[in-house]
Amino acid sequence: MTGGGPAVELAAAVRSGERHAVDALEEYLAAIAESDERVHAFNHVMTDQARAAAAAVDEVVAAGRDPGPLAGVPVALKDNLCTRGVPTTCSSRILDGWLPPYDATVVTRLRDAGALIVGKTNLDEFAMGSSTENSAFGPTRNPRNLDRVPGGSSGGSAAAVAAGFAPLALGSDTGGSIRQPAALCGVVGVKPTYGVVSRYGLVAFASSLDQIGPFGATVGDAAALLDVISGHDAMDSTSLPSAPPSAAARLTAGVEGLRVGVVTELTTVEGIAPEVVARVRQAADALAAAGAKVEDVSVPAAVYGLSAYYLIAPAEASSNLARYDGVRYGLRVPGVDITEMYNKTRAAGFGAEVKRRIMLGTYALSAGYYDAYYGQAQRVRTLIIRDFEAAYDTFDVLLSATTPTTAFEIGAKTADPLSMYLSDLCTIPSNLAGHPAMTVPFGTGADGLPIGVQVLAPALGETIMFQVAAAIEVAGRAQEAAVR
Fold first, then answer.
1. pTM of the model
2. Residues 6+ apart with CB under 8 A from 66
3. How would residue 3 be classed by pLDDT, with cut points 50, 70 and 90?
4. Given 130, 135, 172, 177, the catalytic residue
5. In what order do the strands lie in the sheet with 259-263?
6. Which domains does the chain have, with CATH numbers?
7. 242 is catalytic
């Protein structure tokens, strides 16, 4: 049912007293205990804390009060979201032993809404990767096929929802780190407009690109979670002061009369599998059949997104990760002096991919190269923003592929960083522009693995983006039913 889903239905049942939060929680904890050893979605399961929170929710209901819109709903958190007194590792050895003294704003808002935090999920170290193989704690596996990657960097969160370990999860998206794993695992994933969700308490990778967003089994569930976590936060200087758009406001409104553009650059570029393009075209046809006006549209600068991103993001990362020095928190490797301690700590604490990006970023910012690399990348970013704005003058939303292929085998791309980076080809432009985008499952490939269709919208266009995504979800389910 559009507008509903496992999370929305569970919350309604708990709020009405039809179900007890403690009973629902135990079902999810049992699923984690039974299967997560094979999937490795979690770095840390917060069993005791979740049980205490569930009991508190049931007490509130018994007292005749409303515990909130996500009452009794288990939520998994990417392990780069600060959680007070709970290990927050970013899947890196350099944060070994660190317990944050505060909660991220999104964590506070989840608890205020009655949600139950069940654990911290695995990720590519410091969110740098597209497969969740760059974790200091080992890879996460795709629940749809354990020999395949779940995508990244939020692969643990995507896998947790896909495996039924939690109906909802949060991730962070810097270049596609929510949408890409959501597509590969067959769930819904959303990157909101930059500034709609507070970044306070998110361990930074690239501050001008990072954004927290939801995973859900359905469009309706993802909308419910986004509406809970969005809104202004005085603790985040980049948080938008205006009231956030409602993701759930028009889920059942249909698409009659809406203008939908299919981005040619993100469906025809080399590397995108024909079966993925076919699913995008099928989704576009379904929208047209539902009354939308669908045409192709060109966003020329989108093809330069990957090149610009891999200068801007590493440059910001090299600055953000300078704080991990062995002095203030986390890992410390002794040395004869502070310089040796600093060097040994960073050498031992960071993995290969993080070191690669720090070096790329430091080089791009170095004297004599700043204008040629970082400065030029920022100019390309401006071109991308302008080209998207031109497209949105004509179209309400845009469609594209989310990922070039279905989930690839574990280990297939670890020796070829460029091939791995190409996994984010279709998702990066939205991060550079700061616009919202989301992926919706729409059929499978020849290997039986999920394919996602990406819906893109202008800044603060979440309401219409979810409206179109809900229509795609309905069409996808009808197509699956017809196949059966």
1. 0.97
2. 15, 60
3. low
4. 177
5. 42-45, 116-121, 74-78, 168-173, 211-216, 188-191, 437-444, 450-456, 397-401, 259-263, 293-297
6. 6-301+385-483 (3.90.1300.10)
7. no
